[in-house]
Design brief:
A 16-stranded antiparallel β-barrel has the order 3-4-5-6-7-8-9-10-11-14-15-16-17-19-20-21. A two-stranded antiparallel ribbon has the order 12-13. The chain is mainly beta. The protein has four helices and 21 strands. Helix 1 runs antiparallel to helix 2.
């Protein structure tokens, strides 16, 4: 546009000079003006070409030079602005499993072998508007698809970080351990029966003592993930947890193996629900069973790990006052002991786990239902699991797992049933 303006101005100036008799004898002056205009036009053309080259080569004046794109082994693909106010990291997580079960029944056709996509997650996390305004979104594409996490955190002060959204209730250690870093193919029976799962709510967490202590507290809807509490029930779920690192590492994450140095971590938590339509977790994972009454649960755990060896102990107890039973002060409890040893550091690991759940004899049958073949009211359940892990990438991000589980269930009548299960799993996370 500037070039066209200069050309037009030159043209009319020249026309005026030629048409004016007083300037007829000033040809040298006119020629000089024309030369000056040509020089201005050439200068403008050089400036325009320079801007075009800058945009093409990615100079500081180009818009995309303000966005950094980077990849790091095992941490996904990251887009980030140079001022760090916006960041988006995309990751992929998949678990593919083969499962053989041999239940203790008289029917041979109850044996089964199946293959499944256990998890197929897309994960987005980062920050928006400011480096301390953080977000995490996790969506599971397997099956019918489900939103796992949608969490917003305001981490301007590391000692006090408000959080809102859908995420894991801060309670038992095994469930809080990331599914991407599990030592076995699945969780133990104490998590199956006592976890509070994911829920929608708000809370706060923070780090004290240079990261050596972490605390979590929150209030949740108590209805599980992706639900609406339209009735305004007073059955809110509350939970609080604290964990401390007494040697090595820090208390930021719950990790049971792959320690870089000797690490000792201890944790404890308490949670409860109350009011109408209270929900309690059962073996089908995060599905809930509604009942009327109150529950209070507590847990304590300890973990020691070093580069070759890991050992974890965890205990969970639950008091329940379930109105429809007419009996109060019911108490169920469970525990697990789990350990692993690296035959080849960061490559081949042998792991073992023993877990037990003991129910109060008066507890409702729906809380003790075992399996789908028979409606067995369990009095006690224990399992022993032996696993073998091969870490292809030297960590949990690319690995193969194989484990065998023996399970014994004792009913209220004293009858015992045994089940056997073999699982193989391939996991990738990048």
């Amino acid at each position: 546009m500037k070039i066209l303006t200069v050309l037009a101005f030159s043209f009319f100036t020249l026309l005026y000079c030629i048409s004016t008799p007083a300037q007829a004898d000033s040809s040298q002056s006119i020629q000089k003006q024309i030369e000056e205009l040509k020089m201005q036009i050439e200068k403008l053309e050089q400036q325009m070409n320079s801007k075009t080259d800058d945009t093409a080569t990615g100079s500081p004046e180009a818009w995309h030079s303000e966005i950094k794109v980077k990849t790091k082994k095992g941490t996904g693909l990251t887009f980030q602005t140079t001022d760090n106010n916006y960041k988006l990291r995309m990751s992929f997580f998949g678990q593919f499993m083969a499962n053989y079960t041999d239940p203790d029944t008289d029917m041979d056709d109850n044996e089964s072998l199946g293959f499944s996509t256990k998890s197929l997650w897309v994960i987005w996390d980062g920050n928006a508007f400011a480096p301390w305004m953080k977000y995490t979104v996790q969506y599971d594409l397997s099956g019918g698809g489900a939103l796992k996490d949608m969490r917003l955190s305001f981490a301007k002060n590391k000692a006090f970080i408000p959080t809102i959204g859908q995420y894991k209730v801060p309670f038992n250690r095994e469930f809080l351990n990331s599914v991407t870093a599990m030592q076995f193919v699945g969780t133990s029976i104490i998590t199956d029966y006592f976890q509070y799962g994911r829920d929608i709510g708000t809370g706060v967490y923070g780090f004290l003592g240079v990261g050596m202590i972490r605390y979590d507290a929150g209030i949740f809807q108590g209805e599980g993930p992706i639900t609406k509490n339209d009735k305004g029930d007073k059955s809110l779920l509350w939970a609080g947890r604290v964990q401390a690192s007494f040697a090595g590492g820090n208390a930021k994450k719950v990790i049971e193996n792959f320690a870089e140095e000797p690490t000792l971590m201890v944790g404890a938590a308490i949670a409860g629900t109350g009011g109408s339509d209270t929900n309690i977790g059962i073996p089908s994972g995060e599905r809930k069973v509604p009942h009327t009454g109150t529950t209070t649960s507590f847990t304590a755990d300890i973990n020691y790990s070093n580069p070759r060896f890991s050992l974890t102990g965890e205990y969970i107890g639950r008091w329940a006052d379930v109105d429809e039973t007419g009996v109060g002060d019911l108490y169920d409890y469970g525990f697990r002991v789990q350990g692993g040893f690296f035959v080849i550091p960061k490559k081949i690991e042998i792991a073992s786990r023993y877990a037990m759940v003991v129910f109060d004899d008066e507890a409702p049958a729906v809380l003790k239902k075992v399996g789908e073949v028979e409606d067995v009211e369990a009095d006690k359940i224990w399992t022993f699991t032996q696993g073998l892990n091969y870490y292809l990438a030297g960590n949990h991000r690319w690995k193969m797992q194989l484990d065998y589980t023996f399970r014994r269930t004792k009913s209220l009548s004293g009858e015992e049933t045994d089940d056997n299960m073999v699982r193989a799993q391939v996991q990738t996370y990048f």
